[in-house]
Amino acid sequence: KNQVEQSPQSLIILEGKNCTLQCNYTVSPFSNLRWYKQDTGRGPVSLTIMTFSENTKSNGRYTATLDADTKQSSLHITASQLSDSASYICVVSGIKGSGGYSTLTFGKGTMLLVSP
Amino acid sequence: GEEVAQTPKHLVRGEGQKAKLYCAPIKGHSYVFWYQQVLKNEFKFLISFQNENVFDETGMPKERFSAKCLPNSPCSLEIQATKLEDSAVYFCASSQLISAGVGSNQPQHFGDGTRLSIL
After folding, report:
1. Residue B104: which of A31, A46, A89 has the nearest Cβ?
2. Which of A81, A87, A95, B7 could form an S-S bond across to A109 if both were Cys, CB 3.0 to 4.6 Å?
3. pLDDT in tens, B73-82
4. Percent of chain A scored above 90 by pLDDT?
């Protein structure tokens, strides 16, 4: 069964500090891995998408890494800001069927609180 | 438009009533997806459309849930005879058509959801 596990479930850090969120998955065949940010009361917003051949991808202060061999990804947030307080969701895309249709498996998210 | 627009933001229904949710995908996006998020937990896939055609409905509870995407109209998700357990936030997402692998390297753009409360 395709699964995405995220850790920690929640995290509190001081403003200005860095943090790293983890994602382990068992989705196969693998297509790509996405990190989304979901603010309270809003829909998820895409931060990064990485395919099998990509090891790292940055989007401003967000840097995602992918190890497709160990099926692990991380999201590193640098110099955190209050506005980074949100749920961060790891979503893994697998391939279904002969037509290459992509299906998404969602993690439960890591709730990050950045404290002043 | 440039954003996925979902209406209403909040919907309250008595148990047993009907609920209908709407979604206008981003202009030019051919794929529409519906998800259910219960108590801020993981997203449960319900159904996807390629234009007005159902693409994958493996997540849909067949008895009471139905969905449509008709030309020149917002997509809709309808729940008949609602139950308490249908209380959730329902998200719609859209993505562009690409040639290889449906939406495989394109992000799904999400709306802000409709919060459905069944009393």
Report:
1. A31
2. A87
3. 999 999 999 9
4. 74
- How would residue B97 be classed by pLDDT, with cut points 50, 70 and 90? low
Q: Which residues of A touch B102 (CB under 8 A)?
A: 99-102
Could you say which of B42, B103, B107 has the minimum Cβ distance to residue A106?
B42
- pLDDT value for A98: 61
Q: Which long-range contacts (CB under 8 A, 24 or more apart) does B54-62 make?
A: B55/A101, B55/B31, B55/B102, B56/A101, B56/A103
Shortest CA distance from B59: residue in chain A: A103
Q: Is the dihedral of CA A114, B87, B20, B10 positive or negative?
A: negative
**CB half-sphere exposure, A58, CA atoms < 13 A:** 4
Decide if B36 touches A, using CB distance below 8 A: no
